[in-house]
Protein: Phosphate butyryltransferase
Organism: Vulcanibacillus modesticaldus
Amino acid sequence: MGSFQVMIDKIKKGKIPKIAVAAADDLEVLRAIKAATEMNIATFHLIGNEDNIKKIAEEINLSLNNIEVSNEFDPIIASRKAVESVSNGNSQILMKGLVPTAIILKAVLDKEIGLRTGRILSHVALFEVDGYDRPILVTDAAMNIAPDLEQKVQIIQNAVDIAHSIGIDLPIVAMLAAVEMVNSNMQATVDAALLSKMSERGQIKGAIIEGPLALDNAISIEAARHKGIENQVAGLADILVVPNIEVGNVLYKSLVYFAKARVGAVITGAKAPIVLTSRADSHEAKLNSIILAALSACGNNI
Ligand SMILES: CCCC(=O)SCCNC(=O)CCNC(=O)[C@H](O)C(C)(C)COP(=O)(O)OP(=O)(O)OC[C@H]1O[C@@H](n2cnc3c(N)ncnc32)[C@H](O)[C@@H]1OP(=O)(O)O
């Protein structure tokens, strides 16, 4: 059974969360909401162009009877209203609809109404890739642009927390770079080596961190052996930590478009989980993200 299916069973044992959706007037968003409603894993507060929401809902046979709808044309204001719905306790999860990522994240980081906790907020995507024997997490493909060493520590911790919540007790974290040796001209390799040593010394707990590793050595035992990388974790990564947003975003989209991987993604580290997918992602990706966020919100670990 796939990891997303296992999560659904777990979510149903807890209190069903309400999700505030910013700029919900989008076909793929509403298709995901319809599926989540039918699975009974979430209720919704939709903020967006009400006429468009009603029109799309009718087209896809989504009943709005038990769904709260707030009319708001402007995506910036819709984002702020959705964030407020979470910060005032009306909703337990925030979801991005048809709005650019930076706009909703600015509302999330707003000092007055936002969802800051003092921790780093970061994006964690969970992929099921045919041919890879385990679910794989990728971080950070969407929020932190060029994290420094201290930010990478917190990004790793956020991803490790998600790994624990889906039942990976001691995840293997691969710090991705272009090469396996430390090269002082490539900051990613320097940070990776430091993080690996910090893990060895117990400064980062709950995971084994290894790096620098190129992608092939992180996910293929054969490739690692071929390059003479003799350790117990090379080729067996559960979490891929990318050096910057460009690498993460390209990896995310390569897995979806070339490898046809199934994906769900959340922003974690905030007061509530945030469903954040690309506007072009399918309704399946949005549904999987709702599932991942609902599991985080209900605190029912697998
Ligand atoms: C993969 C599928 C989905 C996608 O394709 S997404 C597409 C790509 N993603 C994006 O375009 C978003 C990339 N990130 C950004 O644009 C920006 O970093 C972001 C999140 C909007 C924040 O930008 P700004 O509002 O300009 O923020 P800033 O750097 O001036 O900081 C303002 C205050 O917020 C804080 N902050 C920024 N990032 C944070 C984080 N990750 N966790 C916690 N706090 C954070 C920052 O410390 C600052 O705080 P303070 O005001 O000094 O107290």
About this structure: The chain has a mean pLDDT of 94. The pocket of Butyryl Coenzyme A is lined by residues 101-102, 105-106, 109, 120-121, 141-145, 249, 252, 277-278 (CB under 6 Å).
